[in-house]
Amino acid sequence: MSVSYKLGDLVWAKMKGFSPWPGRVAIPTPELKPPKKAMNVQCIYFFGTNNYAWIEDNNIKPYQEYKEQLIKSCKTAAFKEAVNQIEEFILHPEKFGDLDDHGRNTEEDFDKLKDEIDEEDSQEEKADGEEEPPAPEAPPKKKSATPKVKPMKRSSSAGMKSTPRKKSKSSLSRSYTDTDMANEKPSMLNHSFSKKSSLLNRPSNILRPETPPLDLENVSETLLEKNIKASQMKFGFLGLGIMGSGIVKNLLNSGHKVIIWNRTAAKVSDIFSIT
């Protein structure tokens, strides 16, 4: 015959692999999810370990009825501590506080507290509704015959002059005309123009690095290894600098036809005299 347990009952609950343990039927914590398959189960709070677990009804027994039989089922220190706690809970439950505090509905508690505060406020308003008799008005003060003299502000030093007032914006703001623009200095009108002009005033007599003369007789080994076939097209090349002279040299050594333009004709004539 199955016993129906209710919230707060003290019981012996047995989990798989453990001896019967003193506990209490409690409200499950939010983290403890109910089992899917088991039907007749109870949420048990275990004394000593302060854990919660779902236990089937056939593994639960009333505490007082089976106390003498199961109190000696285990001899560990944790079991003895759990038994001492449940006995202390029976004598002084107020020491343990509310074990089901996690399952309380905070919204309902807030509504109850709010209703109590509203009732207290309404009672205070009724008590304050009884108006006290108004106090007698004080007689008006008589005006003195002597008029009040406003105190004069003294300056910090006798010889200091009063500071002039600031001019209004309307007197300062005016539109620039063509004559004003002509009288203004160029550096004041356009600051960026003065900066750019200083950058353009660079010396023109900068010495350029001299490029070595072309040596068409010495062919590089990499060019000989590639065995490049000359094309029938003509190649135009501008400038015989350090990089350009080397490219032209490789084109001529590989048998290409090259048309050259250079700023100074001396280098071009040297090449054609070699070829």
Short description:
The chain has helices at 67-70, 77-91, 106-129, 169-172, 178-183, 186-189, 191-200, 221-226, 242-253, 265-274; strands at residues 10-13, 21-25, 41-46, 51-56, 60-62, 234-238, 257-261. The protein is an alpha+beta fold and 275 residues long.
Explain this structure to me?
With 275 residues, this protein is of the alpha+beta class. Helices cover 35% and strands 12% of the residues. It is built from ten helices and seven strands. The protein has helices spanning 67-70, 77-91, 106-129, 169-172, 178-183, 186-189, 191-200, 221-226, 242-253, 265-274; strands at residues 10-13, 21-25, 41-46, 51-56, 60-62, 234-238, 257-261. The strands form two sheets. A five-stranded antiparallel β-sheet has the order 4-3-2-1-5. The termini are far apart. Residues 116-134 have a biased composition (Acidic residues). Residues 189-204 have a biased composition (Polar residues). InterPro entries: 6PGDH_NADP-bd, GLYR1_PWWP, NAD(P)-bd_dom_sf, PWWP_dom. Residues 96-213 are annotated as: Disordered. This is PWWP domain-containing protein.
